[in-house]
Amino acid sequence: MLTRVALVACLAAICAAKPMARSMQVHEAREDIPEGFVLSGAAPQDKVLSLRLALVQSDPAGLEKALMDVSTPSSALYGQHLTKEEVEKFVAPSPDSVAAVNAWFAENGIEAKSISPAGDWLSFSIPVSQANELLGADFSVFTHQETGQTSVRTLSYSIPSDLQGHVDLVHPTITFPNPFGRLPAMIAPPKAKPAVNLTSDAVPASCATTITPSCLQALYGIPTTPATVSTNQLGVSGFIEQFANQADLKTFLTNFRPDIPSTTTFELQTLDGGSNPQSPRQAGVEADLDIQYTVGIATEVPTFFISVGEDFNDGALEGFLDIINFLLGESSPPQVLTTSYGQNENTISRALANNLCTAYAQLGARGVSILFASGDGGVAGSQTTRCTTFLPTFPSGCPFMTSVGATTGVPETSASFSSGGFSNFFAQPSYQSTAVSSFLTALGNTNAGKFNRSGRAFPDVAAMGDNVEIVVGGEFGLVGGTSCSSPIFASVVSLLNDGLAAEGKPPLGFLNPFLYSTGAAALNDITTGSNPGCNTNGFPAGTGWDPVTGLGTPDFAKLKAAVGL
Which of 96, 118, 281, 435 is spaced 20 to 30 Å from 412 by Cα? Predict the structure, then answer.
């Protein structure tokens, strides 16, 4: 039995070694393990976790209003994009939030550093044992059965009750990596290009089986004349060690754009330990595709390949966050950013999805058009048929970016793999309500109960995404996927921006309010095809907007007129 003196001394020692326990409250939780993953056991207690904490932003609603004001053609503020400093005021956390979180960290001996321009994201590293105690969590090892990939995650975590309203989220906790992501597969191009009678004499017959820049120029009226404004730039995202090869680009331009110098190239930017080695065997199918169909279509538009390395956790969207914070930190980010990666929305924390969506709104308010491929699994999202309800993709469900679906053939029809549908996280934005309502009325009760009728609908637009010819490691081949479509549509936007810049006008910025209003008539409506998945026929394409090809594919001449050129 302890004496009174010994008991007091013991309690004093405990208090000195460990901060006072706080009242904890569950902050985020998953109902179940994402499909395809299984629990493998407890995470090693000494494993160090690299964690991030997002502070509650000061005025995201104000940011959204500002974004819509500068992005809506009928607004008096249209085109009056915000400065870096103006955007940061909307998202910077309050001094009280900063102080409260810093005090919590200090109390637990944690050193954190800011990793975003506005100071709303912090990073820190602690062992699993401390993370479990700090967050009332149970970090465990989860294995994806198909790939064998392992991840350390928890199905719920808590924060002190007095930090509610100060902490937005901690990551990665309940967000899982993308289990079904894949890169486009290359197949050999046909040796002979058969003559095919097409609806337009302007489209080469070979385009029925192989898409090249000349096909896109003919289909969409994309000009071959060089851009003239050097400050108008196009950014291409690079992830998962996909490298863009300079020699492949030169071969591509020599064969498919002989009218421009074969030395035309791109600039490299890197973050998170990114690089871009030039060995032919390291050439990436996705990276080469994205670069060849930006440099090769947006003639002479300065193009940047932004290589995001893997100096972050294990692929659960840290790169998506980091590239946006990287661009937000620039005084003059590229006016267009295209990304050909994504994952199923149901693998992601709602709080993280909201935070990333707000990050896209920040760039949009500064005049940047953000385009993402919608995905390649039809209504099953990212290449899986293991679903009973439709799986929307992320970030296509975010209302502050432009989602690009795919078409195939000449004349164009919907590509069956083109992902599209309705978000379960984000509500339908007002800019698309009329177009989506018309589709839902025509759809009737088809697929009832399999999707969220009130969710943000995607894709917004489409472009050719099948039998697209590229060069990888010196070899010619064909690829398919919405990852072809996004860089093609982004190139069209960049050329429109060049024309606007030449006349002293601002860039298009966030595209959707324009696309769903004055821009809708400047798109080729795709009315045939569907996007099957989840053991259904998916959604049908039809007149007007649909969740397969959105509002349609670009008509450059009409778009040029619609933007006032």
Answer: 435
Is 544 annotated to bind ligand? yes
> What is the pLDDT at residue 550?
98
Task: Assign 388 a pLDDT band (cuts: 50, 70, 90).
Answer: confident
| 353 and 454 together in one domain | yes
Residues labelled as active-site residues: 286, 290, 483
Residue 488 marked ligand-binding: no
Please give the structure tokens belonging to residue 45: 């207690």
Q: Is the pLDDT of residue 17 over 60?
A: no
Choose among 325, 420, 339: nearest CA to 374: 420
552 and 449 housed in the same domain: yes
Statement to judge: residues 140 and 283 lie in one domain: no
Q: How many domains does the chain have?
A: 2
Model confidence over 207-259: pLDDT tens digits?
999 999 999 999 999 999 999 999 999 999 998 889 999 999 999 999 999 99
Q: Specify if 3 maps to a domain.
A: no
CA distance 307 to 276: 7
Q: What is the spatial distance between Cα 268 and Cα 281, in angstroms, rounded to a whole number?
A: 19
Beta strands in 43-79 (DSSP E): 48-55
- CA 70 to the chain's CA centroid: 22
Tokens of 353: 């999805």
153 and 239 both lie in a single domain:
no
Domain containing 137 equals: 20-57+92-174
SS3 state at 557: helix
338 and 391 share one domain: yes
526 is in an annotated binding site: yes
Q: How confident is the model at residue 503 (pLDDT cuts 50, 70, 90)?
A: very high
pLDDT of residue 10: 38
